[in-house]
Amino acid sequence: MMKRRDFLKWTAVSSAGLALPGGLCALGRMAQAAQVPDLVVAKGASTPQVVRAALDAMGGMKRFIAKGDVVVLKPNIGWDRTPQYAATTNPDVVGALAKLCYEAGAKKVRIFDNTVSDARRCYKQSGIADAAAAAGAEMVYMDSRKYRDVKLNGTVLKSWPLYSEIFEADKVINVPIAKTHSLSVLTLAMKNWMGVMGGVRFRVHQRLDESLVDLCRVIKPTLTVLDAVRILTANGPTGGDLDDVKRLDTVVVGTDQVAIDSFGATLFGMKGSDIGSVKLAAKAGLGVMDLSKLQIKRISA
Amino acid sequence: MPDLTLTRARRISQGLFLALFLFLFIQTESKGTDELGWPVKLFLDFDPLIFLTTFLASHTVEGLFWLSLILVGLTVLLGRFFCGWVCPLGTLNNLAGSLRKKRPKPPGPGWFRLKYFILVFVLALSLFGVQLAGVLDPISLTIRSFSVAIYPALSYAATSLFDGIYRLNLPVVTPASEAVYDVLKKTLLPFQQPWFAQGTFIGLLFLAILGLNLVQRRFWCRFICPLGALLGLLSRHSILRRSVSEECDSCGACVGVCQADAVPAGKEKWRASECLVCNNCDDVCPKNAVSFGLLKGRPTGGLDLGRRSVVASFLAGAFAVPLLRISPLARPRMSDAKIIRPPGALEEKKFLQSCVRCGECMKVCITGGLQPTLLEAGLEGLWTPVLVPRIGFCEFRCTLCGQVCPTGAIKRLPLAEKQQVRLGHAAIDKGRCLPFAHATPCIVCEETCPTPKKAIWLEEVTVRDREGKPVRLQQPHVDLTMCIGCGACEKHCPVVGQPAIYVTSAGESRSEEHQLLLQAPTGQKATYK
Predict the structure, then answer these.
(1) Rounded to a whole number, what is the largest CA-CA distance in chain A?
(2) Last residue of a domain, one of B252, B280, B302
């Protein structure tokens, strides 16, 4: 049996030992921060590993999530489709991110989207509900009472009802999927914020690019993770034909939504300047469109 | 006392069956997959009136309907135990009747015969091809009333209450009420508020049925219920019989407590066909002279309905058929634009002969788009389901309505097959469409079109605005070879009020005569899982 004195000694030594690596970690992080890239493009067969590697290359999830944070993950779950059709964010990406958030000390991870098809079906069929459950994250159905008119003072949208939780959460991570769209050309990170709009949101299509830029004036995610594990190259954003799906096994991580979208365009053989919302957002100073001005780190995992 | 326990057993049975009924009703809702996990139409499967009338009208038999033969067999042996021990509407009638303490006077002697005339009328209708039994069948009626009226109203009341407390934002009270609301939303309340045309009307009719219990307890069961009448006919020679011993001094205590019109004081004149086996007469007898038992006493209960009255009821039913069929809607090749039937629905005439108006499909429809008609499909089509896309569209990957239909009026189709079914076609109103009429960009119909290759395609055009300035935009077109008429475009069209794109039944695949194209569309390649 351990004596009391021995026990005290033992705890003192072991806590010092525990504290030490933590201190080292912080030092390491500071050193890392100096060389953290603007974008990380990670590729690999195992999606959870790709996500983890990408975040590591960004300096680790702890750089973004603090202990006790309430984190919102906002995937694109707009349609009643299964993952292989690339109409909704890959569930493995969402699950891996939720896990990383918890590992970084998050208190709660909440996941939602204002879906176009029935929310029950979207959540379940996309695989995201199951991935969330496996990671211990909360899958939340949007509560119609929680939209608040938010002042946007944009060029088109002066104010719009937006889901209040994304402003109340400590951290917000945008998790879009890369797809085609006949009006916005592509739907990537910026367009994904339509999923927190209430009201008659289909009206914004009349001036979609400006409206998306207006949204992004007030919605500033901590992190954006673009899912390009599979991309939808035609008949978007709903899809439904496997011939339109291209497998890239890629995840793009960054903090600048405009940069992410500009890079996302290249996945479809386009340039950022081909996307109206990217051009306008860069002009409005919301981010960088010119990829040559960005430090992009490509890794394979 | 063993007698008392029988009455109590009956009450427990009623409670359990009502609970089962409500449980299955609440489970008639999607949880995100294409399976419900429970046999939600079980009560309808056991209903011999639904079975018989559907068989007579459409000459079809759905697999599970053989369950109703079990009820037939049990009724032949045990009498109308279903009415007294099982029927959820009967139990609700019991509950409503107990709201008035004093029992009303027993009714006139012949009134109970009315339900037999109704039964004969309904059977004659179905024999000549009109299925309207579901309008009065107690199981259909109760599910329909709950689906489109009672449940939505309760949901509305609960939501208003909890929303009110939420808005007040009181300390302690609001968090507590939100916690309760959360639990209710996951258990008893619907996923979203249902809205139904006819909801108010059907709700009032149901409340009227319950209200009639204040005039006469179990008014519906005694005088109107055609299922009760059918079971009554079957139970005339049941082996579960009531006997009255010599002890009986005709005190009349049993007269007032009889739930129906079985004439318990009549001893020999006791009507087996009217007895609900409720055991009240046994329970109340001060001499304990009444008892129920197998093959006890003598079989009694002649049921003299009067031949002329039966013939008259039959003729009324028979003549009602041509009277209903002279509606222009029943004309050959008639196609009504707004009669958009659920996916897998039979051709209209067959559909009307099979649909029992139970409302299961409306309850389960995840978008709430299936609505009951009033007279839009003719009186013969009363309360049948039509898709109203502006309220809710047909979800591309959902087959639930076909799964819950008890009679096969909506066929149960595998998903790949259902996705090929055309409910009709979409049409664009160029006078309202933003890119056509107002030089304003909009692609929402195309965006929400769910077919793998989109049935709505966009044409790049340059139009001029009022100042003559050129505007580049995309104008939508409908490809009839691909459009399935699901109504997603109509539902989401941002042109409020009358939409700029809308579905009509023209081109619906269930009718050869309603095709729009010379060559029927071959459909899309079925890659979708």
Answers:
(1) 77
(2) B302
Q: How far apart are CA B337 and CA B355, in angstroms?
A: 20
Closest-CA residue of A relative to B33 is A121
Of the candidates A81, A118, A243, the beta carbon closest to that of B366 is on A118
**How far is B220 from B142, CA to CA, in rounded Å?**
12
Q: Is residue B56 part of a domain?
A: no
SS (H, E, C) B62-89: CHHHHHHHHHHHHHHHHCCHHHHHHCHH
User: How many domains does chain B divide into?
Assistant: 2
State the Rg of chain B over Cα: 27
CB contact under 8 A, B397 and A121: yes
pTM of this prediction exceeds 0.90: yes
**pLDDT 10s per residue in chain B (529 long)?**
444 578 899 999 999 999 999 999 999 999 999 999 999 999 999 999 999 999 999 998 877 788 999 999 999 999 999 999 999 999 999 999 999 888 887 777 788 999 999 999 999 999 999 999 999 999 999 999 999 999 999 999 999 999 999 999 999 999 999 999 999 999 999 999 999 999 999 999 999 999 999 999 999 999 999 999 999 999 988 888 888 888 888 888 888 888 998 877 766 678 889 999 998 988 888 888 888 888 776 666 567 888 999 999 999 999 999 999 999 988 888 889 999 999 999 999 999 999 999 999 999 999 999 999 999 999 999 999 999 999 999 999 999 999 999 999 999 999 999 999 999 999 999 999 999 999 999 999 999 999 999 999 999 999 999 999 999 999 999 999 999 999 999 999 999 999 999 999 999 999 988 898 888 777 665 444 4
Distance separating alpha carbons of residues B471 and A189, to the nearest angstrom: 28
Nearest to A205 among B442, B449, B451 (CB): B442
CA distance A130 to chain B (A): 11
Chain B residue at shortest CA distance from A243: B527
Q: Is A31 helix (H, G, I), strand (E, B) or coil?
A: helix
- Dihedral, B482, B488, B491, B494 alpha carbons, nearest 10: -80
Give the CATH number, domain containing residue B261: 3.30.70.20
**CA–CA separation, A51 and A35 (whole Å):** 19
Q: Which of B276, B302, B328 is the last residue of a domain?
A: B302
- Whether B129 is in a domain gets the answer no
Distance from CA of A155 to the nearest CA of B (A): 17
The domain spans of chain A are: 1-35, 37-300
Decide if A238 and B449 are in contact by the 8 Å CB cutoff.
Answer: yes
On whether the CB atoms of residues B116 and B330 are closer than 8 A, the answer is no
CATH number at residue B448: 3.30.70
Chain A residues with beta carbon closer than 8 angstroms to that of B494: 200, 202-203, 205
Beta-bridged to residue A157, according to DSSP, are none
Range of the domain at B277: 237-302
Cβ count within 10 A of residue B437: 14
Using DSSP, state whether B97 is helix, strand or coil.
helix
Length of chain A: 301
CA–CA gap between residue A28 and residue B257 (Å, rounded): 87
The fold for domain A37-300 equals Rossmann fold (3.40.50)
Would you call B395 and A241 a contact, using CB atoms and an 8 Å cutoff?
no
- Whether B453 and A202 lie within 8 Å, measured CB to CB: no
| ipTM for this model | 0.92
Taking any CB pair shorter than 8 Å as contact, residues of chain B touching chain A are 30-33, 163, 166-167, 191, 366-367, 395-398, 434, 440-444, 446-454, 458, 474, 492-494, 496, 525, 527-529
